[in-house]
Amino acid sequence: MGIDIQSGCPYPLGATWDGGGVNFAVYSHHATQVDLCLFGDAADWAESHRIPLPERTDDVWHGYVGGLGPGQLYGLFPGDRGADLVSDPHDSAPYAPLGTVIDTSFDWKKDHPPNVTWSDSLIYEVHVKGFTQRHPDVPQSIRGTYLGLCSEAAIKHLHKLGVTAVELLPVHHHVDEHRLHRLGLTNYWGYNTLGFFAPSRRYASDPSPQGVVREFKTMVRGLHAAGIEVLLDVVYNHTAEGGDMGPTLSMRGLDNAVYYRLDPRDPHRYVDYAGTGNTADLTEPRALQLVMDSLRYWVEEMHVDGFRFDLASSLARSPDAFNHRSAFLAAVRQDPVLSRVKLIAEPWDIGHGGYQVGGFPSGWSEWNDQFRDDVRHFWKGEHSIAPLATRLAGSSDLFAGAKRGTRASINFITAHDGFSLNDLVSYNDKHNELNQEQNRDGHNGNHSSNHGVEGPTDDAEILRIRSQQKRNLLATLMFSLGVPMLTAGDELGRTQQGNNNAYCHDSELTWLDWNLDSERSDLLAFVRRLSLLRRRHAAFRSDKFLLGEASQPGTPKDVAWYLPSGRELEMPDWGRHDARCLGVWLAAPQDPSDSKDVDLFLVFNGGQTNVNFHLPTPTPGFCWERILDTGLQHGECPFRPRGETSRIPQLSVCVFRHSRLGPRLPGPR
User: Fold this and answer.
1) What mean pLDDT comes out for the span 635-647?
2) What whole-number distance in Å separates Cα of residue 254 and Cα of residue 79?
3) Which of 75, 224, 507, 561 could form a disulfide bond with 37, CB atoms 3.0-4.6 angstroms apart?
4) Which CATH class is domain 5-100?
C-alpha cells in the first residue's frame, strides 16, 4: 500500500503529531533531496517506505503523512550534500538510530517549578542510575531509573541533606564509543550525545520511547512535588559522530558543513575545541536554532528548571575566540523561556583562550574551579589564609567586575570528573588501570592529594586525619558564599578505589553504596548538620560579596577577619605566607523579619598544631557558644569557652554562635 504525502509545513522542525497525522520538517542547505524513511516496529528494521519530502521552504524540507501516529519509527536520508562528504552505498538501516513519533500528552497534576532562589540553593550532582542502583529501600524494579530517583527513599535522602536541586549527569540519548565497546566498557557518564530531544532509555524501567518520556516526566513531577528542582547537564558542544573517521549518525549526514566547525584550510577535517573530535558550530543560525529549540523543549515540554552546559566556552566562540556577546549567549539572554531558568556554565574548553572563569555575562552562574583549587590547597598546607578568605567571601575577584553577585559562583570540592571526596584524602596518585589506558588518562595535577599531617605512621591516626579532612572540606564548602554543589556519594564516603576518571564504568565502582558502617553514618550525619546550619544562618547565604563594610551607617561590618592573637587583620597580614589560622566574624544580616538570626565566628585552622585562639570581644550581654568542631566525629559540640580563648584543634573548622549570656554549657574548653 502506498503512502500519500502532502506538502505539510516548514515549522515546527522535527516530527509533530497533530492527532490525524505527522508533519516532518528538517533543515539542510546542501541537500538536493531528503527522503523520509518509515519503518515497522523495533523488531523489524527493514525499511517499509521511502518517500521524498515534497517541499523545500528556506532550506527546510517538509511533508505531512496522514494516518501516522505515536510510535512510528522513521529516519531521514538526504541526497547529495555537496563535496564535503563521500556517500557510502551500503544500507545503514539495520544500524542507524531512528526517530520515534511521540505523544506529548501527560497528566502533570498542577506541577509547578519550585523556583528556589540561588541563595537558598544546594545542588546535588548525581547520576540517575548510580544513585539508586544499589539502594535497598528502592523497589528493585525501578532501581537505577528515573522512577527510582523520585522514589520515597530517594527523596527522603535528598530532603535530609537539604538538597534543593539535582543536577543530572547527561540524560540525553547517547551512544558508546566503538573503542569502549571493543574493550567491554561503556560510556557511563553519557557525554557522547546523539539525540538532543530524547531522554536516554538506559534509565527507564519501560524502555519503549513513549515509556521513557513518560517516566522522565514522572520523575520531574515527583521531584517538583518534593520542592526539588531538576537541572540537566547538557552536551551541545559536540556530538557522538566524533572526528574525521567517526560514524555518520545524524547531523553529519544532514548537513556537515552547517552543523560542525570545519577547518577552513581543509574542510574534510574538524575544528575540535572539546577534545572529542568535533565541535558544533553555533555561529551558524540553524545550528544555533537546533540547540535553542532543544533547550526550550526540555523546559516547556519536560518541565526542567535549568541546565549546566558542558564546555560552555566552546558554545560562545565567535568565530574562534570566546565572546561574551556571542550569538549563543545573546540568544539565551533574550529568550523569554530560557532567560528565566537556572543557567550554569562549565566555563572552559580545551582550545586557546578557552578558560573563561568569570567571563560569562549577567544571568549565568559558573563552576568555580578556583574555589576548588584554593580550598584544597589550604587544607593540604600549600596556601596561606588569603586565598581561602577570598573564596569564603564569594570570589569577588572573579565575579564582582560584572556586578554578578555571589550566585555567579558554583562552589565545589569534587565533581563527577576527578577523585571522590573519600579518595581525595586517601590517594596521592590516580589508579585508573581498569580504564585500560595504562593509567595515562585522567589528571593527577591538583586532583592528587595528601590531605594529612606530615609523618603519621599509625593506621588509626591516618584514618582519623582523613575523616577530619573530609569534614574540613565539606564545612568550607557549606560555609562559603556562593552556591554549594555536593557530589552524590561524598556524604556517604563513596570510593572509586582511586580511579579519578571512572567515565567508562557502569558497575559497583561508580554506583553509590548504601551499606553504612559507623564512620560513614557519622559523615552522613555531619553533612546533614552542615546543611542545617547553612539554612539557619543567612550570613552563609548572602548574595552580596563580603567586603568588610557596613551596609548602612550605624550597622556592623558584614565581615571582620582575625588572627589567633585576637587582633583584626591589617593589610600587611594578608601577605604572610606562614599564616595558617583565620578567624571570621560574620554579622547577621540586618533583616527585621528574622530576629532569631545571630552573628557567627568561624575559625579555620589549616596548621599542623593546635591553636589557642583569642576570641574577639562579643557584644555586651552576649558570649560565644561553640556549635561545631570538625575535630569531633559528629562535629556537634555545644559549649561556651571558659575565658577569652578557645582551643582550636589542628586541621579543623570551629563555628561559634553569638548567644545571650545565661547558664554555662558543659563541655571542654
Assistant:
1) 73
2) 9
3) 75
4) mainly beta
Question: What pLDDT score was predicted for residue 446?
Answer: 45
137-to-67, 96, 146, 148, 454 alpha-carbon distances in Å: 45, 39, 15, 10, 42
Residue owning grid cell 501527560: 106
Query: Residue 37 forms beta bridges with which residues?
Result: 50, 75
Helical spans, DSSP H, in 235-304: 251-259, 285-300
pLDDT in tens, 71-82: 999 999 987 654
Computed over every residue of the chain, the mean pLDDT equals 92
C-alpha cell recorded at residue 270: 574538524
C-alpha cell at 285: 543560525
Helices (H) then strands (E): counts for the chain: 14, 29
Topology alike, domains 5-100 and 118-454+484-539? no
d(CA 410, CA 415): 11
Q: Which CATH superfamily is domain 545-660 in?
A: Golgi alpha-mannosidase II (2.60.40.1180)
CB neighbours of residue 604 within 10 Å:
27
- Per-residue model confidence (pLDDT) at position 182: 95
Quote the cell numbers at residue 406.
Answer: 555571589
**Which CATH homologous superfamily contains domain 118-454+484-539?**
Glycosidases (3.20.20.80)
Please list, in sequence order, all residues whose beta carbon lies within 8 angstroms of the beta carbon of residue 127, skipping any fewer than 6 positions away: 168, 169, 188, 189, 416, 488, 510
Q: Where are the alpha helices (DSSP H) in 592-657?
A: none
DSSP code string of 495-557: --TT-S--TT--STTTSPP----HHHHHHHHHHHHHHHHHHH-GGGG-SS---S-BSSTTS-B
Asked whether the beta carbons of 582 and 561 are under 8 A apart, the reply is yes
- Which residues belong to the active site? 310, 346
Global confidence as pTM: 0.95
Of 92-101, 434-443, 658-667, the poorest mean pLDDT is in 658-667
Residue 240 CB neighbours (<10 A):
24
pLDDT, tens digit, 9 for 90 and up, residues 451-507: 555 566 688 999 999 999 999 999 999 999 999 999 999 999 999 999 999 999 999
pLDDT tens digits, 571-614: 999 998 889 999 999 999 876 555 578 999 999 999 999 999 99
Residue whose entry in the numeric block shows the C-alpha cell 544500507: 91
The ranges assigned to domains in the chain are 5-100, 118-454+484-539, 545-660
